Amino acid sequence: MKSYEVNFDGLVGPTHNYGGLSYGNVASQSNSQQSSNPREAALQGLAKMKALMEMGFTQGVLAPQERPDVAALRSLGFSGSDAQVIQQAAKDAMPLLVASCSASSMWVANAATVSPSADTADGRVHFTAANLNCKYHRSIEHPTTTRVLKAMFADQQHFAHHAALPAVAQFGDEGAANHTRFCHDYGQAGVEFFVFGRSAFDTRYPAPQKYPARQTLEASQAVARLHGLSEDGVVFAQQNPAVIDQGVFHNDVIAVGNGELLFYHEDAFLNTEHMLAELHDKLGRRGGRFRAICVPRAEVAVEDAVRSYLFNSQLLSRADGSMLLIVPEECRGNERVWQYLQRLIADDGPVAEVKVFDLKQSMQNGGGPACLRLRVALNETELAAVNPGVIMTAPLYDTLTQWVEKHYRDRMSETDLTDPGLLLECRAALDELTKILKLGSVYPFQIN
Questions:
Q1: What are the residues whose beta carbons fall under 8 Å from the beta carbon of 73, sequence distance 6 or more?
Q2: How many CB atoms neighbour CB 321 within 10 A?
Q3: pTM exceeds 0.85, yes or no
Q4: How far apart, in whole angstroms, are the C-alpha atoms of residue 252 and residue 195?
Q5: Active site positions, annotated
Q6: d(C-alpha 243, C-alpha 164), whole Å
């Protein structure tokens, strides 16, 4: 039976703005308070989805969240009508209003951790929504994320959904941004690679000094247990605390993997040689041949990697066995990074081609190509059980493009977030979107 890795890209929400909410994310903080363009952001994301679909990759769509999150504001003491809640928050606690308007759910690499059926004890695809408890504006996402994922992957014969881990620092979980999977074939048992920034309980693991380590070892271990993964099918590795302090807030800012290949920066991990040996050994026992491409610091500094998002790229397997690397336009604009990429594809290695996409709106807010997608490996039977409304087609692309142009503003500033009319616009858009994607009632305003 044939298997596929499907990329489900996050559709950028109508309140896309540069709130500068993510401490430790250089791009997010450096562009804080600038005006954004939600319409352009959504169209840029859709263009990437359409391009990958036309290249022959199976591509899906993951819906955004209702924003501003009035229920979250009510839980913090604001009261009255929805409009009054927004007006009170704007007057008394503007940072909370900005947080409640964040469109950060667009970066669905943080939505969940996914384990394919070939790896799990019960032979189902497992999803655990990430609690994202390191940042308030993201910690409020997981209830809606869980409902949306259940609407997309509803057949309990094939799919299992777990609640987010306890929302405490000891179990900080950032989803697939710190998780990847190596395998010989997507339908065969593979090795799941969990990367953590710190341990909550074991002091032997060093922690960063400047920026927070968002993923804990304990969270990664808990997800592996929930998904029924065997000891022979997992590897836990620690991110280098020094690179976290340079703005590498997730592993997918400094490394990316796919199939049998890990593409990583020389400074990405601690105990790198031991980690590589473990990956090689465990993947070998599952019929794979692990390979690694290390980008030397002498050729690409960590600062260049962070600014260009070289590693926040999509590494995709093509039908001929070669790999395609999807990178943001910022890679072409960085001389050292672009020179390295030209050498990479000239070396006759596994990466045969690099394609560049303009994702400026997302990039300025701190997320590149890899942030925008959640990878789900599915066999033919499982793919047939996915809600067909979320699988990208040419007609769906046209419909979503028209939907964005109808509902999205072309400018969003902090002042615009204080407009109670924005909530009504967002709800009207999402109500229509759930019908387009055949999701049913997944948003609080549709349920309550």
A1: 85, 86, 89, 96, 97, 100
A2: 9
A3: yes
A4: 10
A5: 174, 250, 371
A6: 27
